[in-house]
Amino acid sequence: MTTSVQQDLTGLVIVVTGATGAAGPAVVQRLAASGATVVAAGRDQGRLDAVLQAAGETAGEVQTAVVDLLDEAATTAFAAAVSDRNGRVDGLVHLVGGWRGGKGIVETDLADYEWLHDHLVRTLQHVSRAFHDALRASVRGRLVIISTHQVEAPSAKNASYAAAKAAAETWTLAVADSFSGSGAAAVVLPIKALLTPAMREAKPDAKFSGYTPVADLARTIHDLWLTPADDLNGRRL
Question: Whole-angstrom Cα distance, residue 229 to residue 90?
Fold first, then answer.
């Protein structure tokens, strides 16, 4: 049964991992502008400071944290610190990404798959486990990852990337199952590619057909907290 939810994010605590990537600044700014406390996490404080500056004056608060999500113990400690500081966690937007192409099924270097698995899957496993219980306890808990349409139509040259993304999707949908019966939801957002303002500025006449502007992605992510969990959990949107 669909129920109504609060129409802003005031009071919510949302963690954005991979916050210094292409989509990170737009997502952080959009969530904070709606009143959320946003914890922007990345591996470089200088780049996080730039995200903080780009967010500007907002209705919510932006905190920053340096963490290596490939280190499970460090990730667990990070999650505990976020909960201790803020008293709750209502969202995890996992934007950690990476891409490596290939040359074909036989020709591809499987070391590239190992690298992709670490960045796309292992980081997700570590951070979703660390925040799982807090998200499930929240009446508006959300876990969201960005995926690719290549999962549904993989090519031989992108086999490693598509396979790693498929694994990340499967893990997320399994988390969705663990959220059943709660107010939490785990969601997959597949896209073709992201379009940043810098890309548009560099090529103002390019069509970028099928690309998703980061501002549009940020709005879609924001609206997940305005949608009942029953309408979201376990879905690819």
Answer: 12
Residue 79: CB atoms within 10 Å: 24
The residues facing 65 across adjacent strands are: 41
Distance CA 53, CA 19 (A): 13
Distance CA 7, CA 232 (A): 16
pTM across the whole model: 0.95
Tens of pLDDT, residues 184-196: 999 999 999 999 9
Give the Cβ contact number of residue 140 at 10 Å. Answer: 22
